[in-house]
């Protein structure tokens, strides 16, 4: 998926998205390293040369990527919260944070895991198959890797947000300063190029788990939504939700996609195209949702916004609004995110778009006048949509 010898890098593109929970995965590799020669050399305090490990046939077989360097030795030179440059020779170059869990970075974010006591450093992604994304799944190992310091402590602020600011509540009383629309994470998408009353987004109008479904369903009815794009649920599962049959939602056109939270995956890409084709075949207004209306919805809406000519500022502001609608519950009451925290989430969406497009061979320059509409059309064509389908989708959203 990634081009092999890249002159550029993924940069910090893969540092940020959004998530809700912290967790740790197995610190030990799910394969044998017997027979693979050690390739570790430590040169100084800011450069480490090592290699990617494989199984006893010399193949990379894990979705995570294990490096032949002990975490404890690494942590004598670097620390949790640093940002490092990881150059995978002949493949790609990443600028990523050093953390203990892949859940310490937002969804779709790459990271270098350094866990005390582990025999290996691990390159990982928060939801996804990193080895496949980088084109390493069946490659012969060892593959040389160089790690250098990019920014000492550069991710400490992000780490604090990921670990401490993401508490949310299911109770409206916890959000005294939010409107019903904000509590339900319901809003019309009004970015540049998008037609009026064409596209909406929200938390799930049917899933009871967040305590917001009745609000979202009622608001969708009030807005006259005619077609729902459900990114989260399979049809059979959706119909098991309590009061589904009595909802406004159940009376309208709906496609149930049941997509994984893995923006690089083939299943997500195919589902995205299926959803867009459903929009072409049905009349709006449209409402896109997953469970929270955050990650899968955030990415999908950003693609549509970019396609229709939205500015970067438009896309970022709409995306970050979701996090202001949910996060930072302290002592059962929401405390507004500060400016730095909002800026952190604004950076998520463009970096995710740039990373996913890069994975399809589409590199968008980091300039103010970058043509995101053209890049998005190229992306959708890479996923299998025709020029005629893309034009029809744009017509539906004008």
Secondary structure layout:
Layout lengths: L40 E4 L2 E6 L12 E3 L3 H4 L8 E6 L3 E8 L10 E4 L7 E5 L4 H4 L9 E9 L4 H9 L15 H4 L3 E2 L10 E4 L10 H11 L3 E4 L4 H4 L14 E4 L9 H16 L4 E4 L6 H12 L4 H15 L2 E2 L2 E2 L4 H21 L12 H11 L4 H11 L1
**Domain tally:** 2
Low-confidence stretches: 1-43
Enumerate how many helices there are, as a single number. Answer: 12
The largest beta-sheet arranges its strands as: 1-2-8-4-5-6-7-3
CATH homologous superfamily designation of the largest domain:
Protein tyrosine phosphatase superfamily
Your description of this structure?
With 398 residues, the protein is of the alpha/beta class. It folds into two domains: 12-163, Beta Barrel (Elongation Factor Tu (Ef-tu), domain 3), CATH 2.40.30.90; 176-328 and 369-397, Protein tyrosine phosphatase superfamily (Protein-Tyrosine Phosphatase, Chain A, Alpha-Beta Complex), CATH 3.90.190.10. It is 31% helix and 17% strand. The chain has helices spanning 71-74, 130-133, 156-164, 180-183, 213-223, 235-238, 266-281, 296-307, 312-326, 339-359, 372-382, 387-397, and strands at 41-44, 47-52, 65-67, 83-88, 92-99, 110-113, 121-125, 143-151, 187-188, 199-202, 227-230, 253-256, 286-289, 329-330, 333-334. The protein has an eight-stranded mixed β-sheet, with no helix packed on it. A hairpin with a 2-residue loop joins strand 14 and strand 15 (333-334). Helix 7 packs across helix 12 (387-397) and helix 8 packs across helix 11. Residues 1-43 have low confidence and may be disordered.
């Amino acid at each position: 998926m990634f081009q092999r010898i890249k002159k550029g890098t993924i940069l910090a593109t893969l540092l940020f998205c959004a998530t809700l929970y912290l967790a740790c995965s197995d610190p030990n590799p799910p394969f044998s390293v017997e027979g693979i020669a050690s390739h570790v050399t430590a040169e100084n305090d800011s450069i480490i040369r090592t290699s990617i490990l494989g199984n006893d046939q010399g193949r990379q077989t894990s979705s995570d990527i294990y490096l032949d360097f002990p975490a404890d030795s690494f942590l004598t030179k670097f620390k949790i919260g640093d940002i490092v440059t990881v150059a995978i020779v002949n493949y790609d170059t990443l600028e990523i944070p050093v953390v203990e869990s892949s859940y310490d970075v937002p969804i779709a974010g790459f990271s270098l895991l350094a866990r005390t006591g582990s025999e290996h450093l691990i390159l990982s992604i928060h939801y996804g198959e990193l080895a496949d994304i980088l084109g390493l799944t069946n490659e012969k190992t060892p593959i040389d890797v160089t790690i250098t310091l990019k920014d000492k402590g550069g991710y400490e602020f992000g780490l604090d947000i990921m670990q401490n600011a993401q508490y949310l509540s299911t109770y409206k009383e916890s959000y005294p300063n939010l409107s019903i629309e904000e509590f339900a994470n319901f809003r019309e998408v009004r970015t540049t190029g998008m037609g009026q009353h064409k596209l909406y987004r929200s938390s799930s109008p049917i899933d009871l788990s967040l305590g917001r479904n009745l609000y979202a369903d009622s608001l969708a009815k009030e807005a006259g939504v005619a077609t729902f794009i459900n990114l989260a649920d399979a049809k059979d599962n959706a119909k098991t939700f309590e009061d589904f049959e009595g909802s406004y939602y159940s009376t309208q056109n709906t496609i149930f996609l049941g997509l994984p939270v893995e923006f690089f995956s083939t299943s997500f890409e195919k589902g995205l195209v299926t959803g867009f084709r459903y929009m072409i075949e049905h009349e709006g207004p449209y409402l896109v949702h997953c469970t929270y209306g955050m990650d899968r919805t955030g990415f999908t809406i950003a693609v549509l916004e970019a396609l229709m000519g939205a500015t970067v500022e438009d896309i970022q502001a709409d995306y970050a609004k979701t996090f202001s609608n949910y996060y930072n519950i302290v002592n059962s009451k929401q405390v507004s995110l500060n400016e730095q925290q909002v800026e952190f989430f604004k950076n998520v969406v463009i970096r995710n778009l740039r990373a996913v497009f890069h994975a399809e061979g589409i590199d968008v320059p980091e300039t103010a006048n970058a043509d995101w509409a053209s890049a998005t059309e190229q992306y959708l064509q890479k996923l299998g949509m025709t020029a005629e389908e893309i034009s029809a989708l744009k017509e539906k959203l004008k």
